[in-house]
Amino acid sequence: MADVLSIADARTLVLHAQGLVPGVLPLRPAQTSRASVSRRTAAVGATLRRLGAVQLDTVSVLARSHELVQYSRLGAVGREAIEAAYWGGGRGPDHPGQATTFEYWSHAASILPVEEWPLFAFRRRAYKARGFHWHKAPTTAIKLVRAKLASDGPLTTTELGGAKKGGEWWDWSDTKIAVEWLLFLGEVVCVRRVGWRRVYDLAERAIPSELQDPRDGWSDAEGIVGPPDEQCLRELLLRSVRVMGVGTLTDVLDVHRLARRELPRPYFQGLLAELADAGHVRQVEVQGWKAPAYADAHALDLLAAGALAGRSRTTLLSPFDSLAWHRERTSRLFDFDYQMELYVPQDQRVHGYFTMPVLHGGKLVARVDPKRDNDILHARQVTFELGRRGGVPSSAITGTAAALREAASWVGATDVQVDRVVPDSARPALAAALAAR
Questions:
Q1: Rounded distance, CA 243 to CA 113, Å?
Q2: CA-to-CA distance for 131 and 268, rounded, in angstroms?
Q3: H-helix or E-strand containing 239?
Q4: Cα(288)–Cα(24) distance, integer angstroms
Q5: Helix and strand tally (H, E) in the chain?
Q6: What pLDDT is recorded for position 170?
Q7: DSSP states of 371-400 as a string?
Q8: Cβ atoms < 10 Å from Cβ of 160
Q9: What is the pLDDT of residue 302?
Q10: Residue 77 backbone dihedrals phi, psi, to 5 degrees
Q11: C-alpha distance from residue 129 to each of 105, 125, 212, 218 (Å)
């Protein structure tokens, strides 16, 4: 008979899995300001490995999303430590084979621990089997990119010959199409950025040899060396369960977007059953969820032993944070209906341009639409979740104030100003909480 978890237990599993309980990661937020750069860098690396993937996005509000993910867990860890952990392993041609991360298509465009490089052989094969689908294959450009990276790499797109033809931003040059196609196939890899520009290199030079050298059991299907597809998928499913803490099949598949038209859901259920038979995963029921769920067996044992203690972080979360990636799951888990309004016309927005959920006391208690203006952090709108009796709980107000003050410290702002509060009746209490230190 499957274990039955309360929603509170499910949240505990998820928050620990996501590194949002102080003490789970090697650096507590209270220690961050006193820690050395090397220690902060190590903590960022540990966070990435715990999460398995951190989504990248071009939008920057307060900071870019991949930075906000770290700030939410570690406090004001600083851009220097984040960039060193994310891209410091790919330091250039004088340090071949020392990459510690790589960029690839996971949940979306993401940065991943380099140990996961072999596991994405299944996706590289799928891209090759599918072939070009959005551009005509630039055969000549592909040959030129290969040759130039071999002789002069690592290189940015500009150094390779330019990204655009001169038209709209999506009007890629043949060089850009070629290098991105080779990235899809794994011939080329991005393990470093300069500013916000990708630096491309040959995977055979950048990826550690022990992660690409053929070994027993590996396949070279479609001319791409790595574990067989089923082995890749089984291992990524296991890692996804650990990242989720607990999740339905849909939740687990969503971590790395593993679902494929040619692979029915029973196929993945079979792989999860194999992981359950091996003692790595357990099927559970979560109260209020219609579908069965899967949880990490070790985490369930810790939960049963009372070893998953500790309060969650009080913090703002990026809209692209893996805690809230899957909106339907966020609603199921936190009773919090969250939609990102970045691409909604301004006059139709309800909560704001870049609404960041507020995590406090193990719950999502509010939304904040922030903007930095010199040394002031503006909360253009703060929208509170209402309690059972229709009012705003005082704990949500004090928690949101604490999250805003900490966010100001992330970005070097010295003051927090709130423009609009919903409901407006909570404005005086929020102002008082922000003034209290």
A1: 13
A2: 25
A3: helix 229-244
A4: 28
A5: 17, 17
A6: 53
A7: EEETTEEEEEEEEEPP-TTSS--HHHHHHH
A8: 21
A9: 96
A10: -75, -25
A11: 16, 6, 20, 18
pLDDT of residue 198: 92
> How many C-beta atoms surround the C-beta of residue 193 within 10 A?
17
Residue 69 structure tokens:
């993910």
CA atoms within 13 A on the CB side of 50: 23
248-260 core/surface letters (b: 16 or more CB in 10 A; e: else):
bbebbbbbbebee
**β 356-360/315-316 pair status:** antiparallel
Residue with tokens 């993945």: 268
- Token match 């977007």: residue? 257
CB atoms near residue 191 (< 10 Å): 28
Cβ burial 393-432 (10 Å sphere, 16+ → b, else e): beebbbbbbbbbbbbbebbebeebebeebbeeebeebbbe
CA dist 65 and 88 (Å) reads 18
Q: For residue 90, give both structure tokens.
A: 């790919």
In which element (H, E) is residue 296 found?
strand 293-296
Spatial contact of 355 and 390, defined as CB atoms under 8 Å apart: no
Whole-number Å distance between alpha carbons of 170 and 231: 36
Please report the pLDDT score of residue 386 as a whole number. 92
What residues have CB less than 8 Å from 310, skipping those under 6 apart?
21, 22, 23, 24
Specify whether the CB–CB gap between 326 and 108 falls below 8 A.
no
CA 122 from chain centre, in angstroms, equals 20
Count of other CB atoms within 10 angstroms of residue 283? 15
Q: How far is CA 373 from CA 6, 75, 369, in A?
A: 43, 21, 13
Q: Helix or strand or coil: residue 93?
A: coil
pTM above 0.85, yes or no: yes
With b for 16 or more beta-carbon neighbours within 10 A and e for fewer, the 219-232 pattern comes to beeeebbbbebebb
The dihedral over CA atoms of 267, 271, 274, 280, expressed in degrees to the nearest 10, equals -150
Note whether 394 and 375 are within 8 A (CB): no
When computed from its CA atoms, the radius of gyration of the chain, rounded to whole angstroms, is 23
DSSP string of 4-55, one letter each residue: EE-HHHHHHHHHHHTT-STTSSSS-HHHHTTS-HHHHHHHHHHHHHHHS-EE
From the first residue on, what is the mean pLDDT of each consecutive set of 10 residues in the chain (437 residues)?
89 97 92 93 96 94 94 94 89 76 96 97 94 78 93 90 57 86 95 90 94 91 93 98 96 95 93 97 96 97 92 95 93 92 86 94 96 92 90 95 94 93 96 90
